[in-house]
Design brief:
rod-shaped; transmembrane helix; membrane; transmembrane
Length: 131
């Protein structure tokens, strides 16, 4: 019977050792789970931080693009104003040239008529004096 008791005591000791080992494994697994959860949270936080940095950089680039677009628009507006002024000046120059041309035509017609009249008077005078 002593063998049975010894075997039972030995089995109880093994059971206690196994129970302690299982408890230790459970605690170890709980610690690993906690570490894993902490790592997951850290990874999520890092991803959120990276996303925020990327968003901030995109906003900076967008603002830079908008500023550049505004500067370009101002330059184009200035050039457009210059072109409008040049166009108006050109039209005015064409109008002035056409008026001067009309005036020159009138003076030319008057000079031709005067020259023709003087020529006819001269020819008439010479013809009268010759006959």
């Amino acid at each position: 019977m002593s063998n049975i008791v010894d075997d039972l005591l030995q089995d109880v000791e093994q059971l206690e050792a196994s129970t302690l080992a299982i408890d230790s494994d459970i605690q170890h697994l709980a610690q690993q789970k906690k570490t894993l959860n902490d790592n997951t949270q850290a990874i999520n936080n890092k991803l959120l931080l990276d996303t925020a940095k990327t968003t901030q950089e995109a906003a900076k680039q967008s603002q830079l693009a908008a500023t550049t677009s505004i500067k370009l628009a101002e330059q184009l507006k200035g050039r457009n104003s210059e072109l409008e002024e040049i166009s108006n000046n050109w039209r005015q120059a064409v109008r002035n040239t056409l008026r001067e041309q009309q005036t020159a035509k009138k003076y030319f017609a008057i000079m031709m008529a005067t020259t023709l009249a003087v020529s006819l008077i001269s020819l008439s005078s010479i013809g009268y004096l010759v006959y």
